[in-house]
Automatic annotation (TrEMBL):
<keyword id="KW-0175">Coiled coil</keyword>
<feature type="domain" description="I/LWEQ">
    <location>
        <begin position="7"/>
        <end position="248"/>
    </location>
</feature>
<dbReference type="GO" id="GO:0051015">
    <property type="term" value="F:actin filament binding"/>
</dbReference>
<dbReference type="GO" id="GO:0080025">
    <property type="term" value="F:phosphatidylinositol-3,5-bisphosphate binding"/>
</dbReference>
<feature type="region of interest" description="Disordered">
    <location>
        <begin position="248"/>
        <end position="280"/>
    </location>
</feature>
<dbReference type="GO" id="GO:0048268">
    <property type="term" value="P:clathrin coat assembly"/>
</dbReference>
<dbReference type="Pfam" id="PF01608">
    <property type="entry name" value="I_LWEQ"/>
</dbReference>
<dbReference type="InterPro" id="IPR030224">
    <property type="entry name" value="Sla2_fam"/>
</dbReference>
<dbReference type="GO" id="GO:0030136">
    <property type="term" value="C:clathrin-coated vesicle"/>
</dbReference>
<dbReference type="GO" id="GO:0032051">
    <property type="term" value="F:clathrin light chain binding"/>
</dbReference>
<dbReference type="InterPro" id="IPR002558">
    <property type="entry name" value="ILWEQ_dom"/>
</dbReference>
<dbReference type="GO" id="GO:0030864">
    <property type="term" value="C:cortical actin cytoskeleton"/>
</dbReference>
<dbReference type="GO" id="GO:0006897">
    <property type="term" value="P:endocytosis"/>
</dbReference>
<dbReference type="InterPro" id="IPR035964">
    <property type="entry name" value="I/LWEQ_dom_sf"/>
</dbReference>
<dbReference type="GO" id="GO:0043325">
    <property type="term" value="F:phosphatidylinositol-3,4-bisphosphate binding"/>
</dbReference>
<dbReference type="GO" id="GO:0035615">
    <property type="term" value="F:clathrin adaptor activity"/>
</dbReference>
<protein>
    <submittedName>
        <fullName>HIP1R protein</fullName>
    </submittedName>
</protein>
Amino acid sequence: QELRPKSLDIKQEELGDMVEKEMASTSEAIEDAVRRIEEMMSQARSESSGVKLEVNERILNSCTDLMKAIRLLVTTSTNLQKEIVESGRGAATTQEFYAKNSRWTEGLISASKAVGWGATQLVESADRVVLHTGKYEELIVCSHEIAASTAQLVAASKVKAEKSSRNLARLQECSRNVNEMAANVVASTKSGQEQIEEKDTMDFSGMSLIKLKKEEMETQVKVLELEKRLEGERVRLGELRKQHYVLAGGCDDTPEDGEAKPAPAPRRGILKKPPIAQKP
């Protein structure tokens, strides 16, 4: 009992309550996100027109579809979670079941938090894009994060669910739908960004040869600066992912049920050369 992994900020007896509270909190976050998107839609229609209005409507409509898909996912996940508890607890209470399966419970809580956080961040990014104070890339990153969080929630639920469970099949279908809607947000964001940038097409027809050469050299300098910055940001992203993996418990070699994890496949770069057969 002493060696069982414990959450850093949640007591074992509180895990069951935390699951229900976190699911409810995620549902509230989704509902609030839908309301905020509707408000942004009406605001965009009153304050913009033409191409900008068309782009904003397309992006916000795709965000609304994504929120609806996430809402259905959370509802289905809650139903599956109840089914898992009822079928697995036996004579134990719900609280005892969650405490006994603390690793699984903490994974469920973490996945639910990630989904709710991703939805909130997506709405805030969409708000900034509509107000022209944000970047289109933020929406794309948020969409990818939501897809990853959805996969995490499905994986956490699938661990304890029966393979023949109808709720599990529905959850997997909801997950595919969320991924499709997230891809639609990315597509509408990229096409909208291209439309806006096409409006501001650069015209070099009035420039002299000297001016063109100067602009060309300045652009080459910017390209080199951006390439260097991109390389540095990629290194930073790799370090952040390593730290995230450590904090998420990725270094644990043995899961709660005692089964050993499969060994990772060796990298190509470190494969050893097979020994040469000796002559008899």
